[in-house]
Amino acid sequence: MTITRINPEVLHATPGYHHVTVVAAGRTAYLAGQCPLGPDGALVGAGDIDAQVDQVVSNALVALAAVEAGPERVVRTVIYVVSDDGAMLAGVWRRLLASPLAPAFTTASTLVGVAQLGFPGQLVELDVTASLPG
């Protein structure tokens, strides 16, 4: 199955993601929001955004592997960060791009600063959609 990523010439340049991702009809996986929770269900990295990003990345990789997909099969991501600080949002983006999940962020991606997430102390969450191999 082919995944095509497009940046139309008349739209602004991006810091690595693409404006449009096109996938032929096929199997799709919609991951629940990946939170910075360890296998025991406890929050990892209270107050430490980098530790939370790392846990979210780890969890997303496990969830993708469960459907026999890797980061290169991701067609859409939405990153939620509890902050309105541009530097913090940019730091999360850079950490994701330096992670083993980095290929997932070359696709259609959105980074959003929010007031609160679902778990006390949670600073980041990742929503992922992947196109699965035939």
UniProtKB/TrEMBL annotation:
Catalytic activity, EC: 3.5.-.-
Keywords: Hydrolase
Pfam family, one: Ribonuc_L-PSP
InterPro entries from the UniProt entry: RutC-like_sf (IPR035959), YjgF/YER057c/UK114 (IPR006175)
Top EC class of this enzyme: hydrolase
Cited Gene3D superfamilies: RutC-like (3.30.1330.40)
One example GO MF annotation: hydrolase activity
Family to which this protein belongs: Belongs to the RutC family.
Protein name per Swiss-Prot or TrEMBL: RidA family protein
Natural source organism: Polymorphospora lycopeni
